[in-house]
């Protein structure tokens, strides 16, 4: 009789390895610190890129656009015979800062710019500006026009190269005035001789020094060689403008828009960091980068008005 051996015991199923414990989440305070650090880096990057863009490519594009708009408006006023000939409009209102008052042409430099009323930093972003307490070009006395050296189109970057005898032409509501360059002077140089009765002079002013690092001013003096135009009564006397419209002046009034735009930029950076945790990297950057870039341009554009107006 055959004895059957018992079947071998069944192998026990393998015991699954214990799942790894999830990494502990950082404390709430540490997560908030990461969010604020990321937001600060976003703000810093937006500001640095905004400043670089405003003082170079974007600033030049803005200057070009503003010049086209001002040229069309000034040409319209000339055609209608309502271009300003003094401190007031044809309706008797004081000219607004930035209102076009003249067309400046310097053939030897190939320069053609619309001149706005005023010399504050914000006005000079759009092109050269006429100092408001001086007569308009073509009239008796010394007419002063300021322009930027490097930023926002750099219209006056080469005026220090003007040779004696070069011609400068300015068209206003009274016609075209022709000036002849009499000399270039820097700080410390002797002043030109006093003007005689019924004589006219033009002074162009810009910064001097390296790119975006003004160390002083340079002035080009030119004598009026065409006929002197009549001067209307002046509502505001010479010397009434404040420091913001002097050479290398800054606009203190720009602090308020800088503060407001900065708050918007900081809030946007915090929202981007919150979206980074909720959505992920690419989704948050696709949405956030254009917003941060636009706000960075706005903040830096307002802050540029705090820099010297001839920069």
User: What is the H level of CATH, i.e. the homologous superfamily of the largest domain?
Assistant: Sortase
Radius of gyration using CA atoms only:
32 Å
Helix content: 25-40%
Major sheet strand order: 1-2-3-4-7-8-6-5
Uncertain parts: none
- Beta percentage is 15-25%
Estimated structural class? alpha+beta
Number of strands: 8
Largest β sheet strand count, sense and barrel closure = 8 strands, mixed, barrel
Spatial separation of the terminal alpha carbons: 116 Å
What would you say the CATH architecture of the largest domain is? Beta Barrel
Q: Any idea how many domains?
A: 2
Given the C-alpha coordinates, what overall shape results? Answer: elongated
Mean of pLDDT: 88
CATH topology of the largest domain: Sortase, Chain: A
Task: Please write the string of helix (H) and strand (E) elements.
Answer: HHEEHEEEEEEHH
Work out the helix count: 5
CATH uppermost class of the largest domain: Mainly Beta
Task: Give an overview of the whole structure.
The protein is an alpha+beta fold and about 300 residues long. It folds into 2 domains: about 55-230 and about 240-250, Sortase (Sortase, Chain: A, Beta Barrel), CATH 2.40.260; about 250-310. The protein has 5 helices and 8 strands; from the N terminus they run H-H-E-E-H-E-E-E-E-E-E-H-H. It has helices at about 30-55, 55-80, 120-125, 255-280, 280-305; strands at about 100-105, 110-115, 130, 140-145, 165-170, 175-185, 200-210, 215-225. It has an 8-stranded mixed beta barrel. Helix 1 crosses helix 5 and helix 4 (about 255-280) packs antiparallel against helix 5 (about 280-305). The longest helix has 27 residues, at about 30-55. The chain is elongated and about 135 Å long. The model has no long low-confidence stretch (mean pLDDT about 90).
């Amino acid at each position: 009789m055959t004895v059957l051996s018992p079947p071998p015991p069944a192998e026990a199923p393998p015991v699954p390895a214990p799942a790894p414990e999830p990494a502990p989440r950082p404390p709430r305070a540490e997560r908030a610190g990461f969010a604020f650090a990321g937001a600060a880096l976003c703000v810093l990057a937006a500001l640095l890129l905004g400043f670089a863009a405003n003082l170079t490519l974007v600033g030049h594009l803005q200057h070009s656009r503003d010049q086209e708009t001002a040229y069309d408006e000034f040409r319209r006023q000339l055609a209608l015979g309502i271009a300003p000939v003094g401190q007031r409009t044809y309706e008797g209102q004081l000219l607004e800062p930035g209102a076009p008052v003249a067309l400046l042409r310097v053939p030897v430099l190939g320069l053609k710019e619309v001149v706005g009323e005023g010399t504050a930093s914000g006005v000079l972003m759009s092109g050269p500006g006429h100092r408001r307490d001086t007569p308009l070009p073509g009239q008796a006395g010394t007419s002063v026009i300021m322009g930027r050296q490097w930023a926002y189109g750099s219209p006056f970057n080469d005026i220090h190269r003007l040779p004696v005898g070069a011609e400068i032409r300015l068209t206003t509501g009274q016609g075209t005035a022709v000036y002849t360059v009499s000399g270039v002077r820097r700080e410390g140089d002797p002043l030109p001789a006093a003007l005689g009765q019924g004589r006219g002079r033009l002074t162009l002013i810009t910064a001097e020094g390296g790119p975006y690092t003004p160390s002083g001013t340079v002035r080009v003096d030119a004598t009026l060689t065409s006929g002197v135009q009549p001067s209307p009564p002046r509502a505001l006397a010479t010397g009434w403008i404040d420091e913001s419209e002097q050479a290398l002046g800054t606009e203190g009034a720009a602090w308020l828009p800088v503060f407001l735009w900065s708050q918007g930029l900081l809030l946007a950076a915090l929202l981007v960091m919150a979206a980074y945790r909720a959505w992920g990297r690419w989704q948050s950057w696709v949405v956030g980068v254009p917003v941060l870039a636009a706000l960075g341009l706005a903040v830096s554009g307002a802050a540029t008005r705090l820099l010297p107006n001839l920069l």
